[in-house]
Amino acid sequence: MAVFISQQCLCNFCSRQAIKYVNYSRIFKNNSDRKLHVSSYFSTGRQAKRSWESVVGLEIHAQINSEAKMFSGAGTQFTAAPNTQVSLFDAALPGTLPVLNRRCVEAGVLTALALNCTVHKVSMFDRKHYFYADLPAGYQITQQRMPLATNGFLSFVVFNPVVHKRPYKKTVGLLQLQLEQDSGKSLHDVDEGRTLIDLNRAGVPLMELVFEATLKDGEEAAALVKELQLIFKRLGTCTSKMEDFEIKRQIGELEAGFKIINETRMFDAQAKQTVPMRDKEVFQDYRYMPEPNLPPLRLSDSKDGKSTHLVSITDLQDNLCELPGQARQRLIESYGISLQQAMVIVSETGLEEFYCAVLNDRKRNVKIATNFILSEVMSQLNDKGLTFGESPVSPQKIGDLLDMLESKFISLATAQDVLKHLFEDHAKSPQEVVREYGWSQICDEKMLEAICEKVIEQYPQKVKQFKKGKERALNPLLAEVRVSSLNRADMAKAKKIIIKLLKERN
Fold first, then answer.
1. Which residue, 76, 217, 317, 401, is most buried by CB atoms nearer than 10 A?
2. Secondary structure of 240-301 as H, E, C letters
3. Can you give the C-alpha Rg of the chain in angstroms?
4. What count of Cα atoms within 13 Å lies in the side-chain half-sphere of residue 244?
5. DSSP state of 11
6. pTM above the 0.85 mark?
């Protein structure tokens, strides 16, 4: 998924030319009238210190998961050697004609339905003319006048624990979704003073999604993209990665008294910043024209199975999978977990299936299971660079470990130690690890009393402090009980016993 930053005045946002630009991001002064022309704020020059309000819109190019290109049978393998996945049509040889890839249409319709769009039964392809050295035909086939889908929206949750006190929901309109082909790739050899062309990407299928500019900051933009990534993943229509660092750059430019230039910018992953691609200050005349070699794209909305159309909207709608928002709501209703916890479970690869397998196996304490999985198990996997789907410790073993913890056969500290051993030795069960190391929890009151008596004798100063009313002196005593018992003591019982013994002392 590619994101480019383009500067386009929001007052013109409703025009068709405006929404063709790739990701618009605007900075407004607080309490300013947004109906005024944005450039009035950009041309004021150096002024007194002030705060800024960002207004962000995203236009996203998402590569469709397809083994073939949009209009040819050439492959789309990302790691292929240069110019090894190029058909005659991709190279724009005279006499070659485009053939529309059905898989790409289905992916576009599925995505549009998931984003609550109106999918049009008839859409058109156009030629967008401009010169790139790696665009052999001199034009891109896209959907300018009659796109595949329009008027959708995406609802998502915004939450960054560093920035926000609690999650909040946001809904952003989707103006349109269209199908188009990608251009090739130029490789600039500075030392040799030449440019090499790789046409492997020429014709790669893309979906272009144009969102309304109603996001207020980078946190909302990032949340929208993350939600979109989850939707793409569940639908299987695209795999994607993206970041956005443009807002800080624009604020810095404005605070320094400079004018924001209309331009298309791309994200440099190594430099962690956006860099200019091409100027947008001058109006670009793309000389759009209907694509003469492609008929109108006609979709069916019937269930009769007799349609001769390429794709049935109704069939795809009926088979639409559970979306991330629906999955979060189901988890909240089924297990009573918080929205924050549901967000993590749905967003982590393989976690939802792992989590449900642990809890659905039998009735377990949801709070204990959720906290243990989201903290201890996730920590072990992160340390090893694994996802939940790649976990060497099965949900069944985690469930058995939780059963021992819930029944107080082992303590939480012991459960943490057992988990580490399970990740080191995948063949063993939690029960085998506990037996091997003699880690069963000490619940016998006489044994606990003996341990507590010994600790009291070893720390007379802490005992005196507690007797004088300093209740915090109890904490190091309990810590020593835990250490002395090798993390086996039932600490709830141990606490009651040691308080009783301390009060009985003169």
1. 401
2. CCCCCCHHHHHHHHHHCCCCCCCEEEEEECCCCEEEEEEECCCCCCCCCEECCCCCCEECEC
3. 30
4. 28
5. G
6. no
